[in-house]
Amino acid sequence: MVDEREALIPKVGVVTDIRIDTPDVKTFRVVTPDGKKAFEHRPGQCAMLSIPGVGEAMFSITSSPTNTEFMEFSIKKCGCVTEWLHSMEVGQQITIRGPYGRPFPVDTEFAGHDLLFIAGGIGLAPLRSVINYCRHYRDRYGKIDIVYGSRSKQDLVDYDEIISEWKNDDGINVHLTIDREQPEWDGHVGFVPNYVKELGFTNDKIAVLCGPPVMIKFTLSGLQELGFDKTQVYTTMELRMKCGIGKCGRCNIGSKYVCKDGPVFRFDEIDELPDEY
Amino acid sequence: MRKISLDRLDALFAAISKAYTLYIPTDTKAGAKFEKWHGEERLSDALNTVRSPKDFFFPQTENLMDFKVEGKNIEVIDTRSECGDFAVFGVRACDVKSFDILDRVFLSDPVDSYYKNRREHGVIISLACTKPAETCFCHTFGIDAASPEGDVVCHKTEDALYMEARSEKGEKLMSAVSDITEDADSAAVDAQKKLIEDRLAKLPLAELSADAFGDGKTSEFFNAPEWSELSEACLGCGTCTFVCPTCQCYDIKDFNTGHGVKRFRCWDSCMYSDFTKMSAGQPRLTQLERFRQRFMHKLVYYPTNNDGLFSCVGCGRCVAKCPIHMNIVKVMKKLGGSKNG
Facing residues of A151 across strands? Predict the structure, then answer.
């Protein structure tokens, strides 16, 4: 036996809770077989989950590091591994390894600033970790605005937590929007980029974007119209990954590896990368 | 420096085999290939093996771990075992340098324990190239075919093999063959080096330069219009990546044996369309983008991350093997400016 630690060898995790968030998103709670957290992480970091025989895939850790009991993953059903994960029942074991990647600079660049989180659809998953981290250390940050949009009310991930917890926090403003009118919705209707412009945020904040590429593109230009500089705006990138440790080559873009140099990037850093993401 | 008469090579291989599993390049129907020496195998005269010796440290496929799956339960089985000592004889200067390039990937934090295990137990016995080929361009990357690196460095003359240890591992191996080798001065080796230098200077690719490439050249080359013409005929077969001693991209796959699951890794290629394909999209839609990735990585991205070191050693395998005769030399000539003709 080689006694050296090997990053590619995962631990066993147990799914202890499955929450149905939307028609195609479920949130899985994962602990080790002895009921502990598999490992500690920082907001924005990811983990490799796998079902032996099916495959392994990278997911952002949606729970905050301040949660001392378990980790959560909000996962959209869209491929082989995610389809299998969606078919699981409570008690199913999976494998887990990580944490991977560069986290959000929550204790450095974010500290002391007003924060603006903008998410679309499943893009809330990585932001939920950092939002709940900032809520936990509330006095370290200024005013917090959260803009979150989805196709419909049913497609808003973590809707209960948003309504029952985030909306009630002092100094946190939650702005929800859905793409099209629907009967049981009396909130804002419209696409996220337009809503951000309508809300007219002042450019003295740090903004964090996560969502589909088209939302990111138009929201970024909207923020720039509002006077934001690219050095004030962060996002998380997604490319195919296999190893998670910058060796297998799949997530290589320019001289960076998204799995270890990202997934969190500032937009001025993204400008330096070749345009193929 | 020690030497042994060429007609006693079998005695040398036998002595090395006592302490190490020995591999030598030998001629097969499929060309020169590193094979385990059992006593019968003859040393090939070929300049280079068809496949590079990267297999010794980064095999084409390898088992990473096993899983036992019972109902909802999973057991992870660590299948790693300590590698035995082995020696690879006859590694050319270019291929020796490729190990340094692979080291910077696999031994950087977090260390790949599979690779490290083999690397620590492998002894490299290099062999200077007396007859470099027309496809050779190792000198472009500062590699000297007349003076390879390695744990033990060898020069083969008309009648003798000259051997010199260059590392602790090399000294240990040389002490195992001290009884059958004799002291030698460097006159014959110096004369051979001079001869090789003369031959290298006359090679068709002697003037090929990589100076135009390297750290920070992404914006200069990424959108170059030449990529379209260069990549036009690329079949995306991946042959270049498989014969390349420095290509190290890999895939991880699971295989259900019926008695459990084996997770293994295998070589992969950025030339393949599914390399970057995700359920959410495909960032490299055409062969142009995949082709460009391979060469940008070797000539710009890798050097950016590794103190200017290029991820090509000029072994010429891709030049010889590409079915459409496209290769890094043509890419460098097309993009690298007038100096490369």
Answer: none
User: Nearest C-alpha of chain B: how many angstroms from A274?
Assistant: 7
pLDDT at A12: 97
* Inter-chain residue contact A238 with B280, CB threshold 8 Å: yes
Interface test with A, best of B113, B255, B289 (most A CBs within 10 A): B113
The pLDDT-based confidence of B340 (bands split at 50, 70, 90) is low
Is there a contact between B41 and B24 (Cβ–Cβ < 8 Å)? yes
Give B-chain residues touching A276 at CB under 8 angstroms. 283-284, 289, 293
Strand (E) or helix (H) holding A199: helix A192-199
Residue B54: phi and psi, rounded to 5, are: -65, -25
User: Do B124 and A16 form a contact (C-beta atoms < 8 A)?
Assistant: no
Contact A213 B106 (CB under 8 A): no
The rounded percent of chain A whose pLDDT value lies above 90 is: 86
Looking at the domain A11-99, which fold is it? Elongation Factor Tu (Ef-tu); domain 3 (2.40.30)
Q: Percent of chain B beyond pLDDT 70? A: 99
Q: How far is B229 from chain A (nearest CA, A)?
A: 19
Domain range A114-236, its CATH number among 3.30.720.120, 3.40.50.80, 3.40.50.850, 3.40.50.2020: 3.40.50.80
Helix (H, G, I), strand (E, B) or coil at A11: strand
Q: Which two tokens stand for residue B140?
A: 């472009």
What token pair was written down for B262? Answer: 């084996």
Structure ipTM: 0.91
- Mean pLDDT (whole number) for A37-56: 96
Confidence of residue B281 (pLDDT cuts 50, 70, 90): confident
Q: Measured in whole angstroms, how far is the alpha carbon of residue B180 from the centre of its chain? A: 30
Within 8 A of B112 by CB-CB distance, chain A residues are 6-8, 247
Sign of the dihedral through C-alpha B103, B76, A252, B227: positive
Contact list in A for residue B282 (CB cut-off 8 A) is: none
CA-to-CA distance for A44 and A133, rounded, in angstroms?
A: 10
Structure tokens given for A144: 């917090």
Sequential DSSP letters for B213-278 = -STT-HHHHTT-THHHHHHTT-----HHHHH-SS---EEEEEEE-SSSEEEEEEE--TTSTTSS-B
How big is chain A, counted in residues?
277
- Region A125-141 average pLDDT: 95
Query: Number of helices and strands (H, E) in chain B?
Result: 12, 12
Question: Distance (Å) from the C-alpha of residue A277 to the closest C-alpha of chain B?
Answer: 5
pTM confidence score: 0.94
**Taking the CB of residue B119, how many other CB atoms lie within 10 A of it?**
19
All structural domains of chain A with their residue ranges: 11-99, 114-236
Mean pLDDT value across chain B: 94
Q: Which of B101, B104, B251, B279 to mutate to test the interface with A (most CBs of A within 10 A)?
A: B279
Q: Is the Cβ of A252 closer than 8 Å to some Cβ of chain B?
A: yes
Number of CB pairs, chain A paired with chain B, less than 8 A apart = 127
Of B73, B222, B283, the CB nearest to A93: B73
Which amino acid makes up residue A129? S
Cβ of A78 within 8 Å of Cβ of B279? The answer is yes
> In sequence order, what are the beta bridge partners of A114?
A205
Q: Say if residue A196's pLDDT is above 60.
A: yes
